Amino acid sequence: MNLKFKSLLLSSMAAVAGMMMVSCETKEPDNPSDGTDVDQNGNTFVTTECITPIRYCEGGYVGTETGVSVIITQKASDNVKFILEPGSDINSYLVQIYPMAFMYNTLLEEMHLQGKESFTVDETTSLLASAVRLTEETSGGELFTRESLGEDFGSYEFDFKSLDWTGMASMTAGTDFLIVVQACFDDAASRYGDLVICHFKSSDAEITGEPSVSITASPGLTSYSFTLTPGNEACASAYYLSVDTPQLDEYIDAYGEDMLMQYMLYAGAPVEISTSAPYSHPSISVTDLEATYAVCAIPCDPAGNPYFAGFVRRDFSLQEIPDDAAPATATVSFGDMTKDVAATVAKFTWKLGTDCKDVYYNVYTKEEAKSYMNASDEEKQSVINKIALEGFSVPRPSSSQQGSEYELLDLASELTPDTEYALLFVGRNFYNQFTELDMSDVFKTDPLVRDRPEDCIAHYEMKVETYSRTALVLSFTYDENTALIMHRNAFPVIPDNGYNFPKEISETYRYDRDPEAGDGEGWLYWFLDFRHDDPYHTRWPDMIQALTIQPSSALGPIRVSGYDSGQTYDFAYIAEDINGVLGPVKTVSGTTMSMGGGNNPVVTSVTTTDGIDEGQFNVVFNANEDTREMRYMAIQQSSSHAGSMYLERLINRPSASDYDMYMSDWATYIMNPDSGLSTTGLEAIVGPLPKGNFTLAVALPIGGAEGADPVYGDLAAYVIDEEGNVMTVEEYLGVQTRTVRITIPRY
């Protein structure tokens, strides 16, 4: 089973408001269940009593020659240290630390996905093994070998505060954790020895005062928002959870509030609040209007320690939908079939009625569409759910409000030529109520003509212009007879995908009149692999389809990046006309900006832009022309790099005297190929990142003429606070602007 455990890098419970969150309560380690057993090495094992039971070793583990011993040397409220000692047959091991409540939630999600009512101990052990073996996942194990640890391999001590691969920015007090270690017989971690699951609980922290927090919910008709307000000066932040009441009740009834609160600590990050600045969460849209919802919160003291005794919960229902709520109405129509339907694309017009908020649809063959329309009510509802979740959407823009009609041209692509289709769709009103399943008129695509390019009536042209050292801009012009334009970078192939392309563009490769009988050297052949039944089964996986069934106009410029500086790239492009005829393949070239470089590399600005989805943003770094390379990264409080970058300490606004240490250590960290990112362009973007999180953005410019030694500029370090304000670290800490002399490591 390819189980992908959820990443620990969750920054806001709003992002998982609809997630199934079920965990499990363990017996206190000092009072193990009747299932406690002791093996011949004196290891004490505890099996938790729940529907996803975990069998773990308490307080440490003595391994054999096929396993790894675990010796816990120190436990604190915010840290743990432990030694791993592999057996004589072991050449590597995978290790990870999991918050127990988080792992229980993941196991329960998998249990529901498998349609089971419980797991056995063997099943949960197998799933934990799968989790730690997924090294490509954030919550997968970190691999250590005899080669990587050298003489320390036989006994190596891990210090949580110095680890950057746990997925946890910090460790909270009074919380249950699992150390999971998979022993391996080989260096590649492909042959497995013993699996060790060891439990420990972080020490309790001294809480300053008795912090409290209150929750104010603001339910609407289809969404809700809430506000967290501290009840006293002792409360400086809070963890929160937003979820529907049935899930929350299932959790608490079965497993108790203690593990729920532990889950909250690692499913989200704390939000800072004060009596003068409460935290207001923006509107959360929901689909189940009949359900009740709940918001839970745990207050924290000024040091960030959660005060479990202050846990609060607020339950509420949404406002009732009026009995006279108007239903959505929507229609779809096709214009001139000879112009609006080609071989692989079709254009149609949506009209949303005055009370229609949006439309969802999918494209089906005529036979499929009619079978669904003649299905039972239950089967139709299943189709509606599928279309609403996975189908294409036609949303009403914010500029077009309820009470007005709205029209939109839309396109279906990648259709099979010479085939009859129909659209199945549903409308949704402003109360999130769906219409019944509806069907459009049937339309038929044209046959695809691929061997008479001279008959193509489309007129089209593509231009390539230099944008930067690593990017080019593609622009297109075309006429009303153009249905589709396809294009791709031809030479050099980026990246090399192993296909046997022609070695150069030349007139010889322009056409292949008889691709079935030819030698496969024609350019039309390289666009469309005719050996497959599907004529659009392309051998160029990065081909971009530019849908253009529109009145004569220009397709918006497309920026493409990832190229080398000072390099000429050839592009090939082809069009399908409104009659389904493929035209001749044309070629065009473009050259990226040459590298340059100088002795004064500078990061000129760090800014933010909105992400594609609401609630996201990007961090943008810009450098000057003297910069040949830029090392950069953006780290949030839930990032796996947060501990190594001292983010928790930085959030708490330490003494300005820490500035020198920050700058020096950040420069070292960003130069490490395993952590910092790199670009030879003058702009770099990190994102999308979730808004409302403390973010550190760091960039180092590197200059120097080509062939000369590198010249390092000053490290640019910026803080982006929870409100999105961008400021330098100097401004944030209140230190005078200055240059810190740092030693640049060489990797």
How would you describe this structure in keywords?
alpha+beta; 6-stranded antiparallel sheet; 747 residues
Topology of helices and strands:
Blueprint: E1 37-38, E2 44-47, E3 55-58, E4 60-61, E5 68-75, E6 80-86, E7 92-99, H1 100-113, H2 121-133, E8 142-145, H3 146-149, E9 156-159, E10 176-184, E11 192-201, E12 213-219, E13 223-230, E14 237-244, H4 245-255, H5 257-267, E15 271-272, E16 279-285, E17 292-300, E18 312-317, E19 330-333, H6 337-340, E20 346-352, E21 356-365, H7 366-373, H8 377-390, E22 392-395, E23 406-412, E24 420-429, E25 438-439, E26 443-444, E27 460-466, E28 471-478, E29 482-491, H9 523-527, E30 544-547, E31 553-561, E32 568-577, E33 586-591, E34 603-610, E35 616-623, E36 629-636, H10 647-651, H11 659-671, E37 677-679, E38 683-690, E39 695-703, E40 711-712, E41 716-720, E42 726-728, H12 729-733
Parallel strand pairs: 3-11
Antiparallel strand pairs: 1-2, 2-3, 4-5, 5-6, 6-9, 7-8, 7-10, 10-11, 12-13, 13-16, 14-15, 14-17, 17-18, 19-20, 20-23, 21-22, 21-24, 24-25, 24-26, 27-28, 28-31, 29-30, 29-32, 32-33, 34-35, 35-38, 36-37, 36-39, 39-40, 39-41, 41-42
Helix pairs in contact: 1-5
Descriptive account of the structure:
The structure is a single chain. With 747 residues, the protein is of the alpha+beta class. Helices cover 14% and strands 35% of the residues. It is built from 12 helices and 42 strands. The strands form 10 sheets. It has a 7-stranded mixed sheet with strand order 1-2-3-11-10-7-8. Strands 36, 37, 39, 40, 41 and 42 form a 6-stranded antiparallel sheet that branches. Strands 21, 22, 24, 25 and 26 form a 5-stranded antiparallel sheet that branches. Helix 1 crosses helix 5. The longest helix has 14 residues. The relative contact order is 0.09. The N terminus is likely disordered.
